[in-house]
């Protein structure tokens, strides 16, 4: 069964990196993993974005398997003073 770790790491020539990533995720305490999942999946601050009046640079990796470029573009479009930088990141580096 395919897993997320090789996709997230994107270094098919170095499978040990995907294994290390999977071990890190698997080693999280359950309470920490649940807290992270709540923050990731239940946080929604879209209504707050238009009120942010500070200059903001939104960095978005072009090849992020979890967060497509359109998400960064949408975020930047709702921030009054935002610029979007869609960047090709070095292998194994991701930003969102």
SSE map:
Blueprint: H1 4-9, H2 15-26, H3 30-42, E1 56-61, H4 69-77, E2 82-87
Parallel strand pairs: 1-2
Notable characteristics:
single chain, 96 residues, alpha+beta, 2 domains, two-stranded parallel ribbon, 2 strands, 12% strand
Secondary structure: helix percent: 40-55%
Please report the number of helical segments.
4
**Total count of strands:** 2
DSSP strand (E) fraction? 5-15%
What's the N-to-C terminus distance? 27 Å
Structure commentary:
With 96 residues, this protein is of the alpha+beta class. It has two domains: 1-43, no CATH class; 45-96, no CATH class. It is 42% helix and 12% strand. The protein contains four helices and two strands, in the order αααβαβ. A two-stranded parallel sheet has the order 1-2.
